[in-house]
Design brief:
With 266 residues, the chain is an alpha/beta fold. The protein has one domain: Alpha-Beta Barrel (TIM Barrel). The chain has ten helices and eight strands. The N and C termini lie far apart (36 Å). Bound molecules: NADP nicotinamide-adenine-dinucleotide phosphate.
Length: 266
Amino acid sequence: MEIPNLGFGTYQMDDRNECVRAIELAMETGYEHVDTAQMYDNEAFVAAGLDESGIDRDEVFVATKLDTDNLAYDDVKRTAKESAEKLGTDTIDLLYVHWPINTYDPVETLSALDELVEEGVIERVGLSNFRPDQLEDAIEHLDEPLYAHQVEMHPMLPQEELHELAVEHDHQLVAYCPIARGQVADVPEIQAVAEKHDATPAQVSLAWLMGKENVTAIPKAASPDHIRENFAARDLELDDADREKIDGIETRERIVDFDEAPWNNA
Ligand SMILES: NC(=O)c1ccc[n+]([C@@H]2O[C@H](COP(=O)([O-])OP(=O)(O)OC[C@H]3O[C@@H](n4cnc5c(N)ncnc54)[C@H](OP(=O)(O)O)[C@@H]3O)[C@@H](O)[C@H]2O)c1
């Protein structure tokens, strides 16, 4: 199964009941891709939600991420197996390096990921939050093809350079914070496009992302209305004029940011 271009984000869903209920509804609504991480402390809850939903596990693409403390060779190997167990699967569809910081080392971390693919513990390798130069370096170190790069991306952070690299190297660019945690609702250009299509600003942002080559969006929603609304963005078709308007947004906003982040240490 290839990665569906709309996924279900689960950051901050560390309450078991909330996570299980949200995953169940997401599966019922039609999502076929769930994004979690060791850092979110909810891999087992995601698995419980999938079980409760009754979905065939072959019909859902589940991605998780290695914690930044778990990037040394032995820790990658050991904790990937722990994640697989928590997720209730023999093979993780996609395992990302969450951040190229702390214990990240291109040789150690990436050779362990290559081996995990050979051993069948993971199906594909992903990276997250890499600068363009770090991404190119990682691609050179990996024997396996890079399948996905996950970064913050929305109309106020369009990530043109990383998108060009995704198309050039043919991997998915997976957009986190795809509705800028609700802030897209405050942007006049997005409001105008939403009004024109009788849609919501969140749907416009998601449709803008999903309409791009090799881009996948992973909105998080705990509220049932948001879960359904975001899924319905698949039916929204933006025309060239809408895209031009959104591409013309000049406001820039990066939500996930801290001193050690790769882009602050070039
Ligand atoms: N790789 C990384 O470093 C990284 C970093 C951040 C996020 N992520 C991943 O990306 C996923 C998405 O990012 P995110 O959760 O940070 O931000 P997001 O998806 O842009 O925003 C989520 C927030 O927006 C609200 N929301 C959802 N749908 C909405 C709608 N239709 N209208 C208005 N508000 C809506 C949610 O509320 P309710 O929950 O109350 O519905 C929640 O507060 C995460 O869950 C995680 O899986 C990865």
